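Board notes (copied after class):
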Amino acid sequence: MPLRDVRALARRACGAAFVGATLAACAAVAPPREDGGDARDRYQPGARAALLAWLDAEWKRFGDGRRGHVVDLRRVGPPDPPRWTAETPERRHCGRIRAVYWAPLPGGVAHSELTPPERRDPSAPPVCDNAWSAVFVSAALREAGVASRDFRGDALHSAYLRDILRRGRAHEAAPARVGRPLFEAHPVEQRAPEPGDLICASRRRESDAVLRAVFLPAGPRARQAWDAAVETVDLGHCDIVVAVDRRKRTLSAVGGNVQDTVSRSLVPIDDEGRVLRTIERPWFMVVANRLP
């Protein structure tokens, strides 16, 4: 879905609340209902549009109200580094990162995946150079109205990804007793992502986990091997897809703590819309987002 279509969807869903780059009001969708075995049934139409609107607004906020930072992952080799002329956007918006991303999340800095062990002090407030990409994803879904019962926000991508995977497997094993979850994990080979989905990569230094997740065995043991690989991933990164352009074989995804800001990454896709891995981002998972 091209970005102009995403914005049109947000306008229809949010009505008068959509004014320029000020889209935060769109996140004020109706709260989820408490009934229904399928988690999707607890949400009102417009929840996905609210998520995309919040992401667009946050990207522009970190660009000081204009077009935000773009990282092109389609090129060969690492992307161009940012050219910050003064302090980084991360530093300029440190107060917001603390108040909106970190503060509502239990655990705080003690669980930041890239925080050195000697600095893991749960009594200390997070500082701007703590890894905040996972709390950005958690904040985006929370601001769009996703309840904690449907998404376990965390400062670790690996923690919420394992939770998503386990919920999905529990539903598959006992669908009569366990309702269908709101988020469903798939290998990148098996799902072409759509706006609102998460795309996730392990970090390059996790070579063993990457190899196990990427080079799947054939046959009935493939799922078991993939599940085991996901369980071993400790460090990772996820972005949220905001637009897909199959003609240009590119999707756009917004994520936090990418080159010290909220960035929009341009990711290569194949003719079927599936994510292509790069050296910089060894993608291995697509998390389907079933918000209406």
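Comment from the instructor: Helices lie at 3-14, 47-61, 89-92, 94-102, 133-143, 157-173, 207-214, 222-232. Residues 157-173 form the longest helix (17 residues).
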